[in-house]
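Human: Here is a favour to ask of a fellow structure person. Comparing notes only helps if you start from a blank page. I am asking you to supply a protein in sequence and structure-token form. Write it directly below this note and I will take it from there.

Assistant:
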Amino acid sequence: MSLLSYYSEGKIEAGIDEAGRGCMAGPVVAAAVILPANYKHSLLNDSKKLTAQQRELLRQDIIRDAVDYYVAEVSHTIIDQINILNATMKAMHKAVKGLKKQQPNLLLIDGNRFKAYPGIQHECVIKGDGMYLSIAAASILAKTHRDRLMAKLAKEYPEYGWDVNAGYGTEKHRDAMEKFGLTPYHRTTFHLKPKQLNLF
């Protein structure tokens, strides 16, 4: 099924999505993308349904074709200070604010929660990255930006496998955290859950 070009015809829509919300290390990243009216792309889809190679190729198409786009980060230290939900909203707002070429009058948010951006209407769309091209484009820009960043940090701390797990709590990542401790890039408000709960 091909994704939809717009939510409300005639509006300047920006798709918004994030990457890294559920990670144990690194920033949360959000992207805002405005695509041309009635834009079509046969391969553009939810970033989670694509391979890393497909995402990188689509990233180039999105950057080339977008009317405007912006990718914003909120650091792990800010996440620890204000919590991940507030940090995600902050990253999304930064992404919208970063749009300079064209001002959207409708924000399409992937998911079910958003803090209203002053002066711009918004719609939350559950699984929107699999429904609307602009949200899918934002998901790809956020994901590829964050994956590149975590791969770079992995060279500094190779034990944690961030070039593969991007900071998510895989078994290898959790094992490394137990063996080597936390790095300066870990979110200290994310605690390791025991692999096996002790029975009373």
Q: What stands out?
A: Confidence is low (pLDDT under 50) at residues 194-200. The beta strands are 13-19, 28-34, 68-74, 106-110, 121-125.
